[in-house]
Design a protein that fits this description.
It is built from one helix and 20 strands. With 225 residues, it is mainly beta. It is globular.
Length: 225
């Protein structure tokens, strides 16, 4: 029997997000896995191509042929660090950023010392972005309006550039028709946004709760920095 879960500090993978070039030396990077447990870890690496619709619903499809992973499976001894080479080998010419999840997944292994037969495993999904040379983000705030649900705003963003637009480290400043301001950044922003990326050539709709005292008086303006 296997349960997806983990004891605290079982192991860690880094970096969790990175960019790759479609070809050349920039098409590869190295992930590192630290085994902080007292037992060997059996791991395997998988690749999925990802996309989001405008509401943030994610779709993933297997894409192992787009990457060369060395090693694809491994055993990491207690207290040791394993390096994993991740190299993009898909289409060398891209019109837009291609987004992937490179998963470092723990493989359940029978443990004769575990009396219950229950195993805790954890899967890490790292975010890989394959970005065309010279690609730029062209983010446009299409509209900001009161949402159907009271006390919330609907923000529509469009990215016409070939580079994806990450939003997790940005600062959003809203100004309502009465001149009141509301600022959102850091963890509160990341917790509010579902999948905080606008894909290249994509459109996203975000629902943002208004802070206490911020009236949804039109027109509502938004600045993103």
């Amino acid at each position: 029997m296997s349960i997806v879960g983990m004891p605290a500090q079982a192991h860690r993978v880094y970096p969790m997000s990175y960019e790759l070039a479609p070809a050349g030396s920039g098409a590869a990077t190295v992930l590192r896995v630290d085994n902080t447990t007292e037992r060997p870890l059996t791991l395997e690496v998988t690749v999925e191509k990802r996309s989001w619709d405008e509401r943030g619903n994610e779709t993933r499809i297997p894409a192992d042929d787009d990457f060369l992973i060395l090693p694809p499976q491994m055993i990491v001894e207690p207290g040791k660090t394993q390096a994993i080479r991740v190299q993009y080998v898909g289409a060398p010419t891209l019109d837009q950023t291609a987004m992937y999840v490179v998963g470092v997944n723990q493989v359940p292994v029978a443990d004769p010392t575990a009396g219950t037969g229950v195993q805790f495993v954890i899967n890490f999904g790292t975010a890989a972005y394959v970005v065309p040379a010279g690609a730029k983000t062209e983010l446009k705030i299409a509209s900001v309006t009161a949402a159907a649900e009271p006390g919330k705003m609907e923000v529509v963003l469009e990215n016409t550039g070939a580079r994806y637009a990450p939003l997790g480290n940005t600062t959003w400043t809203f100004t309502n028709g009465a001149g009141q301001k509301m600022e959102l950044s850091g963890d509160p922003l990341r917790e509010t946004l579902v999948a905080s990326v606008v894909p290249s050539g994509g459109r996203r709709i975000f629902i943002v709760p208004a802070s206490e005292g911020f009236a949804l008086t039109a027109p509502i303006q938004l600045a993103i920095k």
